[in-house]
Amino acid sequence: MKILRRFLLAGFVLLLAGTARANAAKEEGFSDLTIDQVADLIARKDADVFDNNAKDVYDKGHVPTAKWVAFNAVKESDLPKDKSRKLIFYCANTH
What we know:
Blueprint lengths: L1 H26 L7 H9 L3 E5 L3 H6 L6 E2 L17 E5 L5
């Protein structure tokens, strides 16, 4: 129940911020990807994939090559050293 509340709160905050950030995000290189686009990036090894679901959800199954990171505790050490790499973050929540 505590995790559900966190996800709902995070989703609500993102929803409020989402509209204001939508244009800025596109300018900064953020975008939505289709499943086929993600599969292609993984196949070409052109991206690092991060699962932001709860750890138990990740343990039950995740996108191939995905590394688990807590959505609210991503650290620089979690990310690739190559700053030009594409980063894909996903979770079960819709934003």
